[in-house]
Amino acid sequence: MQFRFNIHHFERAVRDDSGGYRVYTTPKGQVYPSITTVLSKTKTESDKKHLQDWIDNTPHSEYISSEARDIGTQTHQLIEDYLHNRPSSIKVDLLSIAHFERIKVFLHKITEVHGTEEMLYSDKLKLAGTADCIGMYDGNLSIIDYKTKRSDQRESYLTDYFLQSTAYSIMWEEMTGDPIHQIVILVSSRKGQLKEFIVNPDDYKDELLCRVKSYYEMDNCKS
User: Domains of the chain (ranges plus CATH)?
Assistant: First the structure.
């Protein structure tokens, strides 16, 4: 299958991971935190405790987390190469190939690619981030994200991913003028689950704005 591209021409943000957490510099020189940083720092105390309990009570949790990141990175690269109609030359684990082959079924619903690994930003939100894919998915301009997981997923587990993609939808419209009304999260789990989650970003905008406001209020308290 050959994917068709419709690339938008605009000035991208520049990512910097050297300071301990990810920031982006916009073409006008503004430095914004990544949406993933904002969501991480504004998790509920219950969510933070749940994560810490998992770290404390799971043998080799650091290795498990590192392996999961590697598998996710490899799978993302395989998908990006596939969408760009080019052979992949990276060395990958068999598990990454399995995730890619599962997700590929849904990639065929993409009829036009508007961008991959797009470094976006919003002056209104004072945020930035890197979107996996923007494209026409089942006839709708969508933010498309891919996730690899150790366990099977439910929609209720993915709220922060929906918030992250909602932020990308706002950034994209601010930068291009093209509104996005659909978020697509494609999930492959190690247990063999393949799920397609589709939501409307409008349903998550209020919560996103609340989390962004909370982040900047915490940030101001520290200064």
Answer: 14-222 (3.90.320)
